[in-house]
Amino acid sequence: MSRIDQHDRIAAARFVDGEMQPEERAAFAARVESDPALAEAVAEVEACRALFRRARTEQPVPLRAGFADRVVQRARDEERVRSAELERRIVRMARICVAAAAAVILAAVLFVTGVIRMPDAGVLQADATAEMIRELDERIQAAEAPPRTLGR
Amino acid sequence: MPIDENDLIAAAAGGDQGAFRSLVELHQARVHRLLSRFTRDPGELEDLAQEVFVKVYRKLDTFQRDSAFYTWLYRIAVNTATDYLGRQHRRRLHLVESDADLDAVRSHEKSEGAAGPLLDEEVRRVTREVLETLPEKYRTILILREYEDLSYTDMAAVLQCSIGTVESRLFRARQRFKEALERLHPELVPQYSVPRVRGGSPR
Known about the structure:
The structure holds 2 protein chains of 2 kinds. By secondary structure, chain A is an all-alpha fold. Chain A has a domain at about 5-55. Helices cover about 75% and strands about 0% of the residues of chain A. Chain A is built from 5 helices and no strands. Chain A has helices spanning about 5-15, 20-35, 35-55, 65-110, 120-145. In chain A, helix 1 crosses helix 3 and helix 2 packs across helix 3 (about 35-55). The longest helix of chain A is centred in the middle third of the chain and has 46 residues, at about 65-110. Chain A is elongated, with a radius of gyration of 41 Å. Chain B has helices at about 5-15, 15-35, 40-60, 70-85, 100-110, 115-135, 135-145, 150-160, 165-185, 190, 195. Chain B folds into 2 domains: about 1-90, RNA polymerase sigma factor, region 2, helix turn helix motif (Rna Polymerase Sigma Factor, Chain: A); about 135-195, Arc Repressor Mutant, subunit A. Chain B has 11 helices and no strands. In chain B, helix 2 crosses helix 4 (about 70-85). Classes of the chains: A mainly alpha, B mainly alpha.
């Protein structure tokens, strides 16, 4: 008896499931005739199918009358809920936009009337440069400091 | 006059609820049958089936006309059913037949000596029970192939994978099913292996 690999087992399934083209099917059928291991693989798939054929004679659970109406109603209800949610989001977003616009207008008014002022750009730059110099000094000092020794 | 499915789809996608209703009526039995492979509880089944069609209603405008509508519908149904099973935390599927029913079947079988229809009842129960123990992807592909008779091409479309993947997954699913059957119900294995016992020649 020859040993067959997974490829042949998958082919056996395709053969039983009717997934082969006529020429491939004829060639495979010839192989099945002469190869007991292949015949066994085919028989196994057929047995599996036969078992399920018996199992699928199960009566379906009865569908209650008016199913389509209930689906349409549910779809309509869900659509209404979604529309309401969308509306709420739009209102919320509009409120946020109005609040942001009001804040900008208020800031502009305060700026124009001189209540608040923008700091001078030159001063800001000088401050930043001084800060950088201070940091560099600290690093240089840290690098020049004698290494700390541990213990005695 | 026969209703053209494409017209219904186009009308329903445009918001025509009457067309959507007709579309539901056209496919409700099929969807219901598929979902009943995942649960036998009538309440859950109704709820799942409604969920499937509501999703269809919401997503109709994304349906690509180059594929068959029923494979697209099956995809939604399978995803809904497997999500549902996930939500149920892989709880055992509801069985119409309880253990008490099975005991009654067995005792009746012994006393009456009836083997035909009663044995089929047991086969249905056991098959369902063994399917339940399989990982979801194997259970789904077996349902699509063995109960729904879908071709490999249609299964690939429903599961959104290649035909090669369908072939190897179906192969593994059948292997796993057989192993589980041998483990859980060895008394059914001789039936399962009838052709082999008779000498291994396929029919």
